[in-house]
Amino acid sequence: AEITRAYDNTRLYIDASGWKHVEGVTDIMDWHDYDQNPETFRQRYIDAANGTPVVTGDRSRRHAFPLFPRFISEYGGIKWDVNSNLDNAWGYGDAPKTEEEFIERYRGLTNTLLNCEKMLGFCYTQLYDVEQEQNGLYTYDRRPKFDAAWIRSVMSRKAAIED
Fold it and tell me: How far apart are CA 78 and CA 45, in angstroms?
């Protein structure tokens, strides 16, 4: 952090992306959150907007610096294996059974983040499949798994932080 700030003090610094942050070192609170249940995901970020510590995965990682910008640097990771031939393929949680179920889960998780007025940004994981991970929006060889129109419709709406 000190070297980065000495080199360019206009850049924000994240001390340990998605992990346990140190107050006074990090400039941005970021989390990796792979909860696949839109309702529990939503409740966690409603609570965070009210100042309650966010706990994801390892319960020792409590993040409660209410004045920091909040950023979900990884969320989603919904398994969708279009090839259906990889025995060791995986994603986070149980894979949806239909494309409609995938879309509703994606929409529910993403709308949670768009509706949180204290959320400065977020990044879906993964954009592409990576070897055995089958949680990308595109395949390993860069073919879209879904019609991009519905993804655009979800992602292009105004976020609460913009109001």
Answer: 19
CA distance 21 to 64: 10
Give rounded-to-5 percent helix, strand, coil for the chain. 30, 20, 55
pTM (two decimals): 0.85
Instruction: Identify the pLDDT of residue 149.
Output: 95
Whether the CB-CB separation of 33 and 44 falls below 8 Å is answered with: yes
Region 11-24: mean pLDDT is 79
Q: Which residues contact 80 (CB under 8 A, 6 or more apart)?
A: 91, 95, 96, 99, 102, 134, 135, 145
Are the C-beta atoms of 34 and 76 separated by less than 8 Å? yes
51 C-beta neighbours (distance < 10 Å), count: 11
Distance CA 153, CA 63 (A): 31
